[in-house]
Specification:
CATH topology: Spore Coat Polysaccharide Biosynthesis Protein SpsA, Chain A
Radius of gyration: 18 Å
CATH class: Alpha Beta
Distance between the termini: 9 Å
CATH superfamily: Spore Coat Polysaccharide Biosynthesis Protein SpsA, Chain A
Number of helices: 8
Strand order of the largest sheet: 10-7-9-6-3-4-5-12
CATH architecture: Alpha-Beta Complex
Order of helices and strands: EEEHEHEHEHEEHEHHEEHE
Helix content: 25-40%
Largest sheet: 8 strands, mixed
Oligomer: single chain
Structural class: alpha/beta
Length: 296
Amino acid sequence: MLPWRDEGLTGSRRLPYTKAGTGRCRRRTFISSPATPESTTQRPRLSVVIPCYNEERRLGPTLDTIAEFLRSKPYSWELVVVDDGSADATIAVAQARRAAGAPVRIFSYGTNRGKGHAVRTGMLTGSGELLLLCDADLSTPIGELDRLMARIDEGFDVAIGSRRAAGHHVKVPQPFYRVFLGRIHSWLCHQFLVPHVQDFTCGFKLFKRHVCQDIIPRAIQDRWTYDPELVYLAHASGYKIAEVPVEWSNDPATRVRLLQDVLGSLRGLAAIYTNHRLGLFLPEGGSSRNEPSREL
């Protein structure tokens, strides 16, 4: 059971959409999402959301590293592990860290739905005032969180890690072909989604809670284009986005499948443009895929 449940959205900025064939703008009806309790004093300051699929090897060291870093901080925190239908011992690894005393919450929905689905699940079930999206391989060191939180403290609503903003440091680069494809992807996102953001896909993003409550129920991308979709929704809703240079290292064990994922990304970007920019084909109430998960 969740320690609390939301009764409505805390964000007030919502996008109208045009129903196909009518030319009329209508308001969305949102699905419910985790609730603002009467008092926020019980909320942790930070939820670290870690989507996982078959991560038994990398998850344990990642949870240990994050917990060690956060124990030195003056604010409260929790780790939110979302299992995306893993076939290995991912859940057991997370449960072992919880048994050892780490504040780990674990969610699962049984079947593999895609990383975007896991991200939405974690961002809607995390209890924190701030929610950090963090990859299980910890390609961006958790110490870079301080940079993102500083921008939030300056008044930004979203802070996204960047491998292209001035001051970034790539310790272990990607293969040249992935760098080339990534630049094409970024160029397309520039042209059709958000012109001022340089890096859409770095897996290290910090959101204020009310932003997640507003934009996550409208997101529908289950696969690799969930990143630009979230950035676009935040931008289009009028939230202030800071792009923050970070340190980053490529993990050779990445599961990117070149041709399949490139084609999937192109389809996803086209869907984001048509669904959100043109207001076509998006069902009222946001994505029907945001169904509840099971907390273990």
